[in-house]
Amino acid sequence: MEEGGVQAIDRLIEQFIDSREAIENFLKLINALQKTGILPLLVGIVNNLDYNLTFLAEQNAMLIRNVNVIYGVLSGKEEARDVSLTELIKQLNDPDVKRGLYLLLKILKAIGNASKEV
Hints:
By secondary structure, this protein is an all-alpha fold. Helices cover 84% and strands 0% of the residues. It has 6 helices and no strands. The protein has helices at residues 3-18, 20-36, 38-47, 49-74, 85-91, 95-117. The radius of gyration is 28 Å and the shape is elongated. The model has no long low-confidence stretch (mean pLDDT 89).
């Protein structure tokens, strides 16, 4: 082996010895993550990083749209008009209305459940 290669290996061994405590702590961390099942989860997240980031961006965009709609309604920019009971019932056939109503009911249930625990 060349002299430069031997010196490089000697420096690596020296750094390894100097970093012994940090390396031991790192290995303990890796073992703990493996035992708790977190390490496979992290590996899966990293392996699918592009998909996960795209999914989070889509969810974020949807959240922003929903907040804008809610803000528009609450700030009075969306005008609420008088509607008949028949018109309201017809709106229940709209899939978006059904989804929104279902989400509101889930929120109300969570609020009610949380109020019991207080």
